[in-house]
Design a protein that fits this description.
The protein is α+β, with helices and mostly antiparallel strands. Helices cover 19% and strands 40% of the residues. It has one domain (21-122): Beta Barrel (OB fold (Dihydrolipoamide Acetyltransferase, E2P)), CATH 2.40.50.140.
Amino acid sequence: MRLPSLSALGLVMLLSTVPASAHHSFSAIFDAAQPVELTGTVTRIEWMNPHVWIYMNVATDDGTTAEWAFEMGSPNRLTRYGWHRDSLPEGGTATIAGSRARDGSTKAAVDTVTLPSGQRLFGAQETEQ
């Protein structure tokens, strides 16, 4: 009786060490049929796995400001695409093109970021449509 219990406990412990994958599907959150291209001031950038996020204040048609959140690929993938942590400084301006969130919120997946110098960097998103 003791051996089966220990075996079951060992199996549970082994399985609990397997990393969980909580990655989302691009098309579940973003809509490639709703393109956006916005220019604004970068307020912060979060370089963390699994995605890098850019937050930017964008002027609206009524003269107010809206904060947009832009999702990019992983830090490792962005580095392979030519990004560096200082590529887009906070307080700087940028133009971001991408796909808007399906829920209509001020969130989008990045296709490209155009810097004030004219340099274009890709968002390194893994999209499936």
